[in-house]
Design brief:
This protein folds into 2 domains: 111 residues, Probable inorganic polyphosphate/atp-NAD kinase, domain 1 (Rossmann fold); 117 residues, Probable inorganic polyphosphate/atp-NAD kinase, domain 2 (Tumour Suppressor Smad4, Sandwich), CATH 2.60.200.30. Helices cover 19% and strands 39% of the residues. Helix 2 crosses helix 3. The two termini are 28 Å apart.
């Protein structure tokens, strides 16, 4: 049984025609199913577990990067096959997974080409897309061997799982590999200088790792899958759980 989780933003009239076309195509393929509309207060983990108890074999996320992260950051440990029907803008994860935006995504779903994908973990929370720490006074140690610090004290850190990091300084895209058994980190120290009117960055250092500890004497913000928290110390690594995901032939890994 298929269960489709629709993001709340899809209630807007401009998405009406594409959703209708998708639902028609899914019916033609014989994979139409129950539709549930997500709300801001919806607990994705409880919802998915409840649907599994009722017989769901496939949970299909319908929306964008934010929807994808909202569901899987909470329900990644649920033992079910996940699919993704990207709609609208902000769909960089869909490109990595090889899933076209809109009606053609139904073709990928119908083929059911499955892979097991890595899931990130930090301080008892999952993250699927990426983890971002804006420029902060942080100290970093990874794989119990390497320590990183900045002369200016501030560094920006991005840890990627499925969502690619875009270094806008040179417009360079870096596509991560969610099956490589490691996470990828992008570290950009801030250039120290009193004459600079705004923060400027050094070129990012890019490195894979298995476990990283980020700490500070003062709380720093951590952004993951649309959620922001304040932390003093976090440990980042791959979760023991992996997710079964339906992917496309044109995936980037």
């Amino acid at each position: 049984m298929y269960v489709y989780l629709y993001d709340n933003f899809l209630k807007q009239k401009r998405y009406e025609s594409v959703l209708k076309a998708m639902e028609t195509k899914l019916t033609d393929y014989g994979i139409a199913g129950k539709i549930i509309r997500l709300q801001h207060y919806t607990s994705a983990e409880i919802l998915v577990e409840d649907e599994i108890r009722k017989g769901a074999k496939s949970i299909i996320i319908v929306g964008n990067d934010t929807t994808f992260g909202h569901v899987l950051s909470r329900a990644a440990s649920c033992k079910v096959t996940y699919g993704f029907l990207p709609v609208g803008s902000e769909n960089s994860i869909a490109e990595v997974l090889g899933i076209p935006v809109g009606v053609e995504a139904c073709d990928v779903l119908a083929r059911r080409r499955k892979l097991r994908l890595d899931v990130g973990w930090f301080n008892n929370k999952y993250f699927v897309s990426q983890l971002h720490i804006p420029p902060s006074n942080i100290a970093i140690e990874y794989d119990e061997s390497f320590k990183v610090s900045s002369n200016s004290g501030k560094m920006e850190l991005v840890v990627c799982n499925l969502k690619p990091f875009i270094w806008t300084g040179k417009g360079k895209d870096y596509v991560v590999h969610p099956q490589d058994g490691k996470l990828e980190a992008f570290l950009r120290p801030i250039i120290k200088g009193k004459m600079l009117k705004r923060e400027q960055y050094e070129s990012p250092s890019i490195f894979p790792f298995e476990e990283m500890v980020v700490s500070s004497k003062t709380p720093f913000p951590v952004e993951t899958d649309g959620q922001i928290s304040k932390e003093i110390k976090i440990t980042i690594k791959l979760a023991k759980s992996r997710i079964d995901m339906i992917v496309g032939k044109e995936r980037k890994f």
